[in-house]
Write a structure and sequence with these properties.
The chain is an alpha+beta fold. It contains twelve helices and twelve strands. The strands form three sheets. The chain has an eight-stranded mixed β-sheet with strand order 5-6-7-8-9-10-12-11. The chain has a two-stranded antiparallel sheet with strand order 1-2. It has a two-stranded antiparallel sheet with strand order 3-4. A hairpin with a 2-residue loop joins strand 5 and strand 6.
Length: about 575
Amino acid sequence: MDASTFMYGLVLGVLCISSIAKSAVPKDPFIGISPQDENYYKVSSESIKCKDGFKKFTKAQLNDDFCDCPDGTDEPGTSACPEGKFYCQNSGHIPVLLFSSRVNDGICDCCDGSDEYDGQVKCENTCWEAGKVARDKLRKKIATYKEGVALRKQEVEKAKVAITKDEAELSKLRNEENILEALVQQLKEHKERIEKAEENERLQKEKEEKEKIEAEEKAEREKRKVEEEAQQEKGEAMGKNNGGENPIESVAHDKIGALDDSSLDQVNDVSEDTEGLSKEELGRLVASRWTGSSESKTEGVDVAKDDHGHHEDHEEMPDMHDEEEEYDGYASETDDDSGKYDDVDTEDDTDEAYEEDTHDDTGSSYKPDPEDDLDLSDTTSPSNSSWLEKIQQTVRNILQAVNIFGTPVDKSEADKVRKEYEESSSKLSKIQSRISSLTQKLKHDFGTQKEFYSFYDDCFESKQSKYVYKVCPFKKASQVEGRTTTTMGRWDKFEDSYQSMIFSNGDRCWNGPNRSLKVKLRCGLKNELTDVDEPSRCEYVAFLSTPVLCLEEKLKEMEDKLDLMNKEKPQGHDEL
């Protein structure tokens, strides 16, 4: 081949390529651009940035069939860029985005034929007929959204009212908590002082009982000692009498023998009251009782008259009275002690009588108002506004009436304090539990307009085959099979701009991960859980229809879309 032939072929090839390239450049520079992106290209100056931010191109380079931006920003209407997307307007039907590689490929991909603009293939516009079903579906969806938007507004208003009410209740409960804490503390201190006084009384009583027992044991020992000494004195006296021939002593001996049994009784009487006497005094006392006369400084004793129990020598009587006074002094000391413990026994009887009375007539001394049972589900109600004031008044009355310094402690009054302390502590515990619950509730994210606030106290169920699925927003999700409950996940967060609820860290699968659930939210006229599935092992997906997801902006978007679908209705096509 000579040089001239080669050059001719080269020129011809360039011309062909140029002709082909020229035919691929669209007449409309904005073809393939979606309505949402038109301003990006039209408003921009001569220099337009690639959407990835790395390069720039001029308006002359837009859709020139040469790829200047790696992301295809400059070639939305040609197949020059692999990453480019072509927008099919499809008036009368649903717009779609195509990969730019399908542009001018000889196949009609857009129902309006806009993707084959080079003329190589003639495409009919079939969008109106093909789009009838889509338009009908869109109209129904728009109707649902319109009703759903109204329901969503109601939910938002209810949420505002509910939040205001819960915040007011929380504030009220915190104030009541502060007041009730102070009352409970007063009752606690009062109760502790009473219990301390009762403990002191108990210890004192034990001490007195112990002293009484010790005194009785001591008296018993003294009694035995006196008896032993009396027996010894008696033996010695009898020995002396038996050793002489004096008839008078013999008579006395007979008398003593005759009175042996009765004298033993007298010794017993003497031994009962001998505490505080010396051994010598005890001896004289016992001897005088055995001989029937008192010991005196004069030794003249008329034994004959002693048989009749009388003394002729009246001057000796004062000595006897002295002995009796000394004995009576000992006896009176013991009597005083026994009287003291008799009081203690009486007190025990009184306590027992009170316990019986308290079973029969507790209300006579203390009747708690039925409204004292705090109804925490309606603490903001005016009907319950005075319960705290009643408790305050009751506590004041009790604290003023109870004398913790009185001896002994009044058991009835002490029981009142204990009872009021227990009841007030119980109310305080309930209030604190409710405060904790409300505080945790109000911390949650309930959406941009608090539209999910009503979900906090709701659970949604769906029965599928042998399983019952239960989703409780802000708490947990579970799967129930018979009597077995499996936790699918615990509340985690919202995702996708409040269009999904995430439950994570559920029960662990056998040799697998912890279960999790993603609930996708969509617009519906009622709250309804549907279509629970397990696309991956132990990773569940479900759908929840709710008016909360019927957004006004979405409604506007669908209405604009329907307008666009109806914009280029062919002549002669009327829609019923």
